[in-house]
Write a structure and sequence with these properties.
This protein is α/β, with parallel strands linked by helices. The chain has two domains: 240 residues, Alpha/Beta hydrolase fold, catalytic domain (Rossmann fold, 3-Layer(aba) Sandwich); 123 residues, Alpha Horseshoe (Serine Threonine Protein Phosphatase 5, Tetratricopeptide repeat). Helices cover 49% and strands 15% of the residues. Strands 1-2-4-3-5-6-7-8 form an eight-stranded mixed sheet, sandwiched between helices. Helix 14 runs antiparallel to helix 15. The longest helix has 21 residues. 39% of the residues are buried.
């Protein structure tokens, strides 16, 4: 498999993959084998932070692409940095033995059961004890290895919260079993199914699985399906990973113009509630809090003005005092809150405090001074 699109080559060249990647031989007691694995640890790794963990099978083909996308999205799209482990499987066609299933039952074959234990009881625990990992983890596989990821869903609690399944070579009845399990499992899950345009043996089952999953009414399941009709069984990997990565971490990214228009402005709830719920959901899902982004503060402020939701300015101002303590943000928003309440004296004193602090974004000392002058003129202070 050769997955070298122009976009991926650009990402590879611009971001670079060296310096943070190590490769070693992992002695597996379960498999009674020595397995080649590769790790990507962010170059500014800090044990005081927590990092989502990503497992990549078919590492020879997928690992570098996953790392390139992870670095690109964390650098430019605000997604969290991740720790990535790749398992090599191409030598001696290991992937087919590692992930084989019984043709009659669709269950893992004997070697595959051991490989399942190797991943879940040796490799992943090793990384969790060696590094500061978050409780959010992702599984990524292609064809036979993509199908293998589904077996983790059949545990009482899935080891992985998210799955990127690229052109899966599905075991018998998996198109029905996976949707049924996604419906039953009591866990927040993300599932991204990807297929190319080639008419292979698994296409019918993949589309059937897509239809069955789309029929689920499960708030705790976030499901995406991408069909790249112009992609073959090679290029679909490059097409799919980037988009899937963005979807997996969509909630973590800054508020987008579309999110602002379609979710915040259309909501009947106070604008501030959206910001609070978003950041609480991030902490609940990933297991660590995210620093509040100035972009998100400004989006909520704009919504307050657009919706005449001036009550949201008060909690927004308190948040800004915590997150941007040396800037005008908190006191300027609080001044506008008092101004809208008609409490002119409080508004004037608050704008005076804002005037004495650092400018930020569109807020300038001239704006605070204009507010102060207007209040003095209107109320004769």
């Amino acid at each position: 498999m050769k997955c070298f699109s122009f976009l991926w080559l650009c990402l590879f060249g611009v971001l670079g993959l060296n310096g943070q990647i190590t490769q070693e031989i992992f002695e597996s007691f379960k498999l009674q084998e020595r397995r080649d694995v590769k790790y990507y640890i962010p170059e500014d790794y800090n044990p005081e932070k927590k990092y989502p963990l990503v497992l990549v099978l078919d590492a020879e083909y997928l690992f570098d692409q996953v790392v390139a996308n992870a670095k690109f999205y964390s650098e430019f799209q605000g997604t969290p940095e991740t720790i990535i482990v790749g398992v090599f499987q191409s030598k001696n066609d290991l992937r087919w033995a590692d992930c084989a299933f019984e043709e009659d039952s669709g269950l893992p074959a004997e070697k595959a059961k051991l490989f399942f234990e190797f991943l879940g009881m040796e490799l992943i625990p090793y990384l969790k004890t060696s590094y500061s990992t978050a409780p959010f983890s992702i599984f990524i596989g292609y064809d036979i290895t993509a199908n293998f990821g589904n077996y983790f869903l059949f545990k009482e609690k899935s080891l992985f919260n998210a799955f990127i399944s690229i052109s899966p070579y599905l075991a018998p009845e998996m198109e029905n079993r996976v949707p049924a399990r996604l419906s039953d499992i009591d866990q927040q899950l993300f599932y991204h199914l990807i297929v190319g345009g080639e008419k292979d043996d698994s296409r019918k089952e993949i589309l059937a699985m897509d239809k069955n999953i789309k029929g689920l009414d499960k708030p705790s399941l976030t499901y995406h399906f991408d069909e790249f009709t112009s992609a073959n069984d090679i290029s679909v990997v490059t097409y799919g990973i980037g988009k899937a990565w963005g979807n997996m971490f969509e909630i973590f990214q800054p508020i987008s113009p579309r999110e602002y228009k379609e979710k915040i402005l259309t909501s009947e709830e106070p604008a501030y509630n959206y910001l609070e719920n978003k950041y609480n959901a991030i902490e609940d899902l990933f297991g660590f809090p995210k620093e509040v982004e100035l972009n998100d503060i400004m989006a909520i402020y704009a919504a307050c003005r657009k919706k005449d939701d001036y009550e949201s300015l008060k909690p927004l101002s308190e948040l800004c005092k915590q997150e941007f303590p040396n800037t005008m943000l908190g006191y300027y928003f609080e001044g506008e809150y008092y101004e809208e309440l008609g409490e002119a004296k409080k508004a004037l004193r608050t704008f005076e405090k804002a005037f004495g602090m650092e400018e930020i974004d569109f807020l300038t000392k001239e704006m605070a001074l204009e507010k102060m002058d207007a209040l003095k003129a209107d109320f004769g202070f």
